[in-house]
Amino acid sequence: MVLTCAVVRGTNAQRIDASRHSRRSLLRTGGLLALGAAAAPLTACDPLGREEAGPRPPDPLRPLLDESLALAAAYRDAATAHADLAALLGPIAEAHQAHAAELARVLGVGLPSAGVTPSSTAATDPDAAIADLRQRERVGRDGALTACAAAPAARAALVGSIAAARATHLEALK
Amino acid sequence: MSQHSAPPTPAEALAAALSAEYAAIFAYGPIGVRLSGSARTAARQAEAAHRRRRDALVVQLSTAGATVPPDQAGYTLPFPITDRASALRLAIEVEERTAAHWRAALAATSGSDRDQALDALVDYAVQATRWRRTAKITPLTVPFPGRPT
Asked: Where do the DUF4439 domain residues begin and end (chain B) (predicted)?
């Protein structure tokens, strides 16, 4: 940023010098004007990536998408490990996967193919597995509630439905 | 889907939610008659939640100087309530429909109004899941509560 400023200011200063108006006050004023002028080229510089134009902040829906995929995988794992829970957990896994698909559509990104998590993380005890899912679901619900409160109008209904769905999953696991 | 009408204002969205609350309270009348024991108690509690939101909305809209839609003398039920099973099915539908109205209010609102709409959407979605459990209807959940199907 400093480098760019110096170049721009130098150019303006040279032009002022070239006009040969040697009164210091005028020069000082010219210098201030040049500083002001430097602000505009600066912003034009950022898209070139030469300055501190770091990576753009991630879309706020992205964490929600990642969480939906992780939840879907966790439910699938638990349903595989505990066949008698499959009827309860299967539809919830599908719901999380549907959320991920819808979020990916809104974000304009592709979904990673499902089932790329071969290591089962499900607890061997069914009660512990449910408790673990409930904890994950609680965190996910709270995150979606926060995201909905801050979401732009066009996204509020989708994020609200996802928050509500996660709350119903908690209820279903009672 | 080719609607190009202007999005509702916050007051219009809340007024629509209020109309849904009126209808929900009406529906819980015949629902409660067909239930007994803990299911009837649950119906009273669910109805009380709709009454609380109705009362709050009436005050809120009046205070804001917005139009308060009137309650109707009666509402057409989507199917006849003849027994416990149909009463529970209607209870599920009532919760889903009111949830849908509050969901629609999310886009039209911000700040505390949106919090209010979100709270109602979540509350009614969870209540619909409770009714499905009571009715032994599976799955207990839907993927996108409140979303028009």
From this structure: 13-148
* Total domain count, chain A: 2
Interface touch A168/B140, C-beta < 8 Å:
yes
Comparing alpha-carbon positions, the chain B residue that sits nearest to A146 is B115
**Which class would CATH give B10-135?**
mainly alpha
Residue A33 sits in the same domain as residue A102: no
Phi/psi for A68 (5° steps) reads -60, -45
What is the model's pTM?
0.81
The verdict on residue A53 lying in a domain is no
Cβ of residue A94 closer than 8 Å to a chain B Cβ: yes
Residue type, B94: V
- CB-based contact, A167 to chain B, within 8 Å: yes
pLDDT in tens, B65-105: 999 999 999 999 999 999 999 999 999 999 999 999 999 99
- Is the sign of the CA dihedral B64, B116, A155, A147 positive or negative? positive
Range of A76's domain?
61-172
Both A37 and A83 in one domain: the answer is no
CB A78 within 8 A of CB A90: no
* Residue A55 in domain: no
Residue A162 contacts B, CB cutoff 8 Å: yes
Chain B, nearest residue to A96 by Cα: B143
For residue A159, the distance in angstroms to the closest alpha carbon of chain B comes to: 10
The whole-angstrom separation of Cα A103 and Cα A14 is: 54
Contact B107 A171 (CB under 8 A): no
pLDDT (tens digit, 9 = 90+) per residue, A134-169?
Answer: 999 999 999 999 999 999 999 999 999 999 999 999
